[in-house]
Each structure stands twice: as C-alpha cells, then as structure tokens.
Amino acid sequence: MRIKFPSILPIIAALAATASVGFAAELDLWFTPLSSEGPMKAPLTKWMKETLPKELPGVTVGDNYGPPVYQDGQQKFIVQGRKGKPDVIESVLEGMIAYQRAGLLAPIDDLFDKWPDKDQFIPSTIKALTLNGKLYGVPYNTNVRVLLYRKDLFQKYGLTPGGKPGTTYFRTQRQFLQRNPALRVSG
C-alpha cells in the first residue's frame, strides 16, 4: 500500500513557488507537524524525502521544521521573518493574519491563479485566507470546531440553549456569566 499525503501538496506548491522566484536550493520550511515526535513524523518525513526531489528537482528542505507549538512559531517568525527565514511556513489562520499584518507575507494570487489544481478547494477555505482582496495562503487541512455544554448545568441555572443558529452560544454565554459571576474567566 502506498502512503499518500495529498494535504501537503499545497506546501509543495508554495515551495515550488519560492524556488521559482530565485530562493536558495535549500529551503527552510517550518512545518509544526514535523517539528516534534508523533505518529505522522516518520511517514511524512519519508514521503517528503521521496516526493520533493521529483516535484522540485534541485531543491532540498532543511531539517529544522521550526518550533513544535504554533504560538511559539508565530512569535519567532514575526522576529525572524524580517531576516528572510523561514522561506515557507505552515500556520494556523490566526498566524497568517498576524504575519500579513506584520508585512511578512506576499500575496500569492498570481501563482494560485496559474495552479491547475486550484479548483479542488472549497471556496470558503480560500476566502478565509484572503485579506483585503488578496490571497495569502493555501489550505491544506480543515477541521470543524464544536461547542458542547453540560445539560445538567444549564438546567441547574435555568438556562436554555435555544435561539437562532449562530447566536445561541453568545447569548447563552452572556446569560450564564451574568447569573454566575464567579465563573467568569479573566483575560
């Protein structure tokens, strides 16, 4: 059975884009899933070593995959990015926004528009990576967040989760904290 990692293909595209504009033959890639030991590190590292030479002849990726925690990587990139390292960074959405605001990212609209596989993306994932009408990243992974609540606590304090979709949590959170000031979280 052949292991495929299609979710990293946008990173390869980003590497190819940086290589095509004259960056060094060895690129510095900060990729959090590879920066610490875990179940995906060995197969993903193997896949990269086998695939990248075929996709990007003459380009190698260094062994430093950056800090293992996104927040640490964000702080270090904001400082180091002004010196040109890393060449490519994998990040969460919040990081991308911070990097763009710090002037560390260039729009990739022209490169993305030329990409033959660009139509594979769900439009909302591209929209999330677009700031002020410019595209600054390519999604390689998406996930869903869920807010769960304990029915017994809602019943105990006379709260109901009812309401229109998209407004329930905020109204309920406000009610819950108003009735229970000791439960407020600082910060």
Structure description:
This protein folds into 2 domains: 6-135, no CATH class; 151-183, no CATH class. The chain is built from 8 helices and 6 strands, in the order H-E-E-H-E-H-E-H-H-H-E-E-H-H. The chain has helices at residues 9-20, 41-55, 70-80, 93-101, 109-114, 123-128, 151-156, 168-179, and strands at residues 26-27, 29-30, 60-61, 88-89, 130-131, 134-135. It has a two-stranded parallel sheet. A two-stranded parallel sheet has the order 2-4. Strand 5 and strand 6 (134-135) form a beta hairpin. The radius of gyration is 21 Å and the shape is elongated.
List keywords for this structure.
single chain, 187 residues, mainly alpha, two-stranded parallel sheet, 6 strands, 6% strand, elongated
Could you give a short description of this structure?
By secondary structure, the chain is mostly helical. The protein has helices at 9-20, 41-55, 70-80, 93-101, 109-114, 123-128, 151-156, 168-179, and strands at residues 26-27, 29-30, 60-61, 88-89, 130-131, 134-135.
List the helices and strands and how they pair.
Layout: H1 9-20, E1 26-27, E2 29-30, H2 41-55, E3 60-61, H3 70-80, E4 88-89, H4 93-101, H5 109-114, H6 123-128, E5 130-131, E6 134-135, H7 151-156, H8 168-179
Parallel strand pairs: 1-3, 2-4
Antiparallel strand pairs: 5-6
* Poorly predicted spans: 1-9
The radius of gyration is 21 Å
What is the spatial order of strands in the main beta sheet?
1-3
Give the tally of structural domains.
Answer: 2
Share in helix:
40-55%
Number of H- or I-type helical stretches: 8
Query: Could you tell me the mean pLDDT?
Result: 76
Instruction: Profile the largest sheet.
Output: 2 strands, parallel
Q: Quick one: overall form?
A: elongated
Ends distance: 49 Å
What fraction of the residues are assigned to beta strands by DSSP?
A: 5-15%
How does the helix and strand content classify structurally?
mainly alpha
Count every beta strand, where a strand is a DSSP E run of 2 or more residues. Answer: 6
Taken in chain order, the helices and strands follow as HEEHEHEHHHEEHH
